[in-house]
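Standup notes
- DV: blocked on the single-chain target, sequence here:
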Amino acid sequence: MLQTSTRQVARLKYGRTFFGASMFAALCYLILASILSTAKAALLPPNPWFVVVLIGLVPFATLGAIFVNWGSLWRNREILSRACTGLCTALVTLGLSEAIWQSLFGAAVPQLQLVVMLLMTAAGATIGIAPRVSDRLLKIGMWAMRHMRWVMIGLAVLVGGGLGYALTSGIALGIFTIFGVLLGSGVAVALVLRIDRLIKQRHPHP
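- DV (later): unblocked, structure below
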């Protein structure tokens, strides 16, 4: 039998998680392409429907990362917490990547842009569901919620909405911009609600 160290096992787990997140994110594009157009290239920039693809990458990549680790997460009963942090890190990674891409390249290389955004989203989801990262994010969030609850909620909505808006930076203002902002705000609110739930479970009121 092959002997693997603890570090090698961890690397294999990260690689498997990243692969699962990438495959589910790619599945999102294939599904949308088959539904919304007859030619897959039609959903690439500068087509405004590409925003829908970007929006779908966030939940699909997170779902793929969770699916690959379903057994261990189910035993630990932490699926919901991992999903919330995975969604947030995937959104942050994708929002920043899209904003940087638009400032550097615009819609010049649409196929490459899709691949890069897909991989970055998968990387963000992979990092976000990692136990060490997820637990650290939740602990920071719980501390912030206990000390400045309404500030934390307001910041979450604003930052989430801003990241969602960044997904639409390559198109003119319109209905797709609203979709992006709603996605970002929804993901941020989901994390805040999860943190609030954890606080109530650990410190129930008499």
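- Follow-up: The first helix runs from residue 6 to 36.
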